[in-house]
Design brief:
The protein is about 25% helix and about 20% strand. α2 (about 100-110) crosses α3 (about 115-130) and α3 packs across α4. The chain has about 180 residues and is an alpha+beta fold. A hairpin with an 8-residue loop joins β1 and β2. It is globular and about 50 Å long. Bound molecules: adenosine-5'-diphosphate and magnesium ion (MG). Adenosine-5'-diphosphate (ADP) binds next to β2 and α1. Magnesium ion binds near residues 51 and 52.
Length: about 180
């Protein structure tokens, strides 16, 4: 039997109301997409062209006006479809008073990790994103690029089969 697509988007439309008497915004108009397992897929487009909205619909964070999205064959609107997906939002919000290690550990616990496996995962991920030396510093003192690296570690903490990254190139920033 064929493997289900990592991500499948069928005739996705999303409109937003912007206020009484104001025209609606068509963020996404009739997109079809099929991303197979193991594939790397990039979305390129000008600001406001609907990239983030499409990703949020795929993740079940916004409800399609029309059409449907699924992850590994499960509807994106079903809570369990999130089990195998990691997400780096465009503007992640983190607690400034936590250290890098505490932050990744916090997200690991939310994903059901604990004890030694959690500790090892946190160490491995901070190493991977190049923040091992800053692990015990509070996020309030991190630079923008460092925060995005923490975002990447957070997205990887549950070893997801599908990784969705919004504007990941900010990670290349050194400021
Ligand atoms: N929650 C929202 N309410 C109203 N308009 C929105 C909302 N989210 C996105 N939009 C609008 O939808 C369009 C697409 O936005 P977005 O998906 O963020 O684009 P991109 O990520 O490609 O820059 C824009 O016109 C944006 O203003
Ligand atoms: Mg965007």
């Amino acid at each position: 039997m064929d493997q289900p697509a990592a991500a499948e988007i069928v005739n996705l439309h999303k409109t937003f109301k912007t206020g009484l008497g104001k025209p609606v915004v068509h963020a996404v108009r009739g997109i079809d997409m099929n991303i197979r397992q193991g594939e790397v897929y990039g979305l390129i487009g000008p600001n406001g062209s609907g990239k983030s909205t499409l990703m949020k619909a795929l993740l079940g964070l916004v409800r399609p006006t029309e059409g449907s999205c699924s992850i590994f064959g499960r509807s994106s609107l079903a809570p369990d479809s999130k089990e195998e997906v990691g997400f780096l939002p465009e503007n992640p919000y983190f607690y400034k008073f936590l250290t890098g290690a505490e932050t990744v550990s916090f997200y690991g616990k939310l994903c059901g990790l604990s004890g030694k496996p959690l500790k090892e995962k946190v160490r491995e991920l901070l190493e991977l994103v190049g923040l091992a030396d800053a692990a015990d510093r509070r996020l309030g003192g991190y630079s923008k690029g460092m925060l995005q690296r923490i975002g990447m570690a957070q997205a990887l903490v549950q070893s997801p089969r599908l990784l969705v990254l919004d504007e990941p190139t900010g990670i290349l920033s050194t400021t």
